[in-house]
Structure prediction request, 104 residues.
Amino acid sequence: MITCYLRYIIDPYQLAEFEHYAKLWIPLVEKFGGQHHGYFLPSEGANNVALALFSFPSLAAYEDYRERSMQDKECLAAFAYAQQNRCILSYERSFMRPVGVEPR
Prediction:
């Protein structure tokens, strides 16, 4: 299993738009075989950092998801939504191996 860790720098004035974007992606990741662990929005501390975690059975399964998502109408609409309202300023992606977590 591989877990993707996404750290977003968001526009704090577009928090509602980013939350909408996040809610779009949770079922999309699961549609392609992933297990979404949620988005984590600012509360205390930095007001412009958000996180997301989701897992796939393997890096190959993740890469398949990435390729297929670039052809999927719902995924493309979610990408366009974020681009249109500019709620995401930047992001970084890392991969981790979870310990003690079994895939669904």
